[in-house]
Amino acid sequence: MKKLMVGMALTATLATAVTPGFGSIGGNQEKAYAATVTYKVTASKLNVRSGAGTTYGIIGSVVKGQTLSVVSKSGSWYKINYNGRTGYVSSDYVQTSGTTTPPAESTTYTVTASTLNVRSGAGTSYASIGSVTKGQKLSVVSKSGNWYKINYNGRTGYVSSDYVQASATASPKLVVDSFKTLGNAQQVILVTADNYDTKSAKIQTFEKVDGKWKQVLTANGVLGQKGFALSKKEGDMESPTGKYTIGTAFGRYANPGTKLPYRKITANDVWVDDSKSSLYNTWQQKPANGRWTSAENMDIPAYDYGFVINYNESRTPGKGSAIFFHVGTNYTAGCTATSKEQVVSILKWLNPEKNPVIIQSPVSELDKY
User: Fold this and answer.
1) In 10 A of CB 127, how many CB atoms?
2) Which pTM does this prediction carry?
3) Is residue 135 within 8 Å of 110, Cβ to Cβ?
């Protein structure tokens, strides 16, 4: 992974294209850029997260003195470009220097006066270079005192902030915003695939904060060797579709920090997959002593960490057993898997008080939820 160069002064920009919600002036679309401001890390080590808050997963870190390419600010968090990805760092540990204000949050700026002069400088003593009219959208670069610096027909202009109204741009709609079956769930793990027959999956996590869904993590994952199953059967090598609650977390090592009930795997632990056994689809310990004829060994690397997906809780014979979310990058026998790093990150994030659920579905059938 390529590191940001320490000591290199980077220019903070609002966007590299017209900011969503910004219009054009005089028919010309303008690129919105902030004046140069240097952003440097002040903490010895600062986590870079996938969203604007400490509940979001850590995707990397930056170190003291490192300069950052800042895109915008959201509350007390800076949105940055981090190794080709979008990341967020706390503004409490980032120091700015420069004469202009830091980038504003994504905002639409609308003229409220019937006619508003555009001036060559930030003040009424500067000459008028044109005008804008009521309702017109402005491409704002930065703010200086009571004046907005704007792109105006390919030139730099200034308008009085007294006659410009700012309103936050609506956040992009997330896929979970349209779900109708979530009930009181405030955390969702969404596992999707392009179709039923692929073993490759996309894993996304979402959390409801202050009544609004926020995306926390996106990762690549894998399904059963034969993809998704609409109606799963024991031994079919397919992962079940549907919405399920989340059961016990487990692992071959100490609790990594999850709030879920956690069980450490021992060499005698097995999961019974014998459909004729009264213990079918339950976690047991060897020896079998005639209680089952087949069971899956739990003490394996794939189960270094994971959690139980509460599938077939009625333990219907032949409907499928041992459905977990665990470590793996190739394919599974019917579970869902991703890298160990992502499994641990999700385990730490899950909170049983938020009634988490996991939804598994081809993209084309998400409207079921």
Assistant:
1) 8
2) 0.59
3) yes
